[in-house]
DNA sequence: TGCTACAGACCGCCAGTCGGTATAACTGAC
DNA sequence: GTCAGTTATACCGACTGGCGGTCTGTAGCA
């Protein structure tokens, strides 16, 4: 086979990109190392030259995601003109504008699928460790401004983040919904759920009811409209 | 090899029991089907006579756990003498008495270990579908009694259950703590966390602060005291 | 000339398959 | 009631394909 040499950073990025695609599409376990190197056009030996194990590749992918999330956050935190409450809402809605609904539903569809628990968990854990302290800073600011209450900003931050990550079931329902009736029902259920989650955040942080909102209005409907094409036999996503 | 025939129900139970032990001890992926049948003294063919796949065995195990949880709940729900608030606390503390601390820490240690995400997730999901409606009934009762507030008892129930399942990190810290100082710090952190989670539940359900409590006093210390013996090299549970 | 980035045959293990079989349970003849 | 014949059930274990990971190299750039 022709031997093609690239800059290590480029190769590493290629592997991460291919792994990201394949893990999302097929699930972490179902996507083999051979699949990944096949996509990049690399040998087994070269792969293990870059990553000590398949798990390390997953870890690197999670770190990458966390790093990107952190970068997105810096922008919010760096804006001193915003009140803590405004920052909170900006935080909760990051990447959840109606314009990014298609992107969001695609991500959800792959990451919340049953065969992707491992991928989801890794991402979540790693991103969480980056996000929690950032959100805690917002909560502390809110406390100083007198708009928020919390005994322990870091713990409160983790609880709030947790509430943001419970969308699993509702997303699955949204993806599985067949027919206009079921779809509009799923949308309504999803929005009720998001409203309740927002309320829970308000209560935990001592904000007036209706202050925190996880998505901007119309986001769920936009996501539903942008659902990835499902196979004609139905049940793309197994129930449960 | 001698051929030993048993009643199918007995064999099935044997397999479930062995799988429960091995999955907990080594993790779902690390415990092979060969390990399980080795423990039971059965052949590969016989195993696949009972379960169509290793995953189906995990599913059956999760169902079993859910069924047991449901049975435990019936007792609480069947007691009409208890107020909804009392039922809530009984619910939150099920299996969390100081007398059951040893059992609890052992369960946590295995189920929250990094290599057991799959096992944890399955159990959690299955048990959740059983628990959420039960807790929702308690919340409805509380609403009728005027002690609780909720727009949607089922969603509130799911949020409350979720809050009960966030103990991961703190448990890991508790298990990893080396030396008296670190241990007492981990205990304190755990208790602060549980207190905050209790507060969050209070707020979500419109209860006075300090009403809901996830464990009885002294439970965390009792758990810490009952930690399973860790290997002398330290770091039984990998960080994170 | 030496080190870095690569190649690919190879290994052990694992979930799952398959053809076969011992044994218990049932049948009917006497 | 018992005993050969038959069937269905519960079981055996060699085998397969594919997986993650290893190892011995080696081409190509510096």
Give a structural overview:
- The first copy, chain A, is built from eleven helices and no strands.
- By secondary structure, chain A is mostly helical.
- Chain A folds into two domains: 1-52, Arc Repressor Mutant, subunit A (Orthogonal Bundle), CATH 1.10.10.60; 61-238, Tetracycline Repressor, domain 2, CATH 1.10.357.
- The N and C termini of chain A lie far apart (46 Å).
- At the A-B interface, helix 7, helix 8 and helix 10 of A face helix 7, helix 8 and helix 10 of B.
- The structure holds a DNA duplex (30 and 30 nucleotides).
- Chains A, B: Residues 9-69 form the HTH tetR-type domain.
- Chains A, B: InterPro entries: DNA-bd_HTH_TetR-type_CS, Homeodomain-like_sf, HTH-type_TetR-like_transc_reg, HTH_TetR.
Based on the structure, what is the oligomeric state of the protein chains? Answer: homodimer
For the record, what CATH class of the largest domain in chain A applies? Mainly Alpha
The major β-sheet of chain A equals: none
Assess the beta-strand content of chain A as a share of residues. Answer: under 5%
Q: In one word, what is the shape of chain A?
A: globular
Task: Name its key features.
homodimer, 240 residues, mainly alpha, Arc Repressor Mutant, subunit A, Tetracycline Repressor, domain 2, 2 domains, 11 helices, 0% strand, disordered C terminus, DNA-binding, transcription cis-regulatory region binding (chains A, B), DNA-binding (chains A, B), DNA-bd_HTH_TetR-type_CS (chains A, B), DNA-binding transcription factor activity (chains A, B), Homeodomain-like_sf (chains A, B)
